[in-house]
From TrEMBL:
Residues 15-84 form the Exocyst complex component EXOC2/Sec5 N-terminal domain. Signal peptide: none annotated. Pfam families: Sec5. This is Exocyst complex component 2. GO terms for biological process: exocytosis; Golgi to plasma membrane transport; protein transport. Component of the exocyst complex. GO terms for cellular component: exocyst. It comes from Portunus trituberculatus. Keywords: Exocytosis, Protein transport, Transport.
Amino acid sequence: MNNTRSTTTTTTTTECKDEADKLFKDVLQRKDRADGTRSALNVLNRFRFLLFLPVNIERHIQRGDYDIVINDYARAKSLFGDSQVPVSHCWTLCVL
């Protein structure tokens, strides 16, 4: 009798877990997608200065703000000049 209750409890627990998995699968998938999007946005924010640097340099050159161009270039070179990150190599090709 005790063995039957144990088997029934185990079966019921397994069925509850399976039902919960079905109910929350979509929620968990959306959470994973949101986490991925959040991570991508963090990367973009981290490299924002670098990504906008070519446009900002051109804009400042057109305005004649050469001191800002020199400062931005020096800042980028000090931040990313010796970096092993592939995006910084792209910056080197675009700016230099």
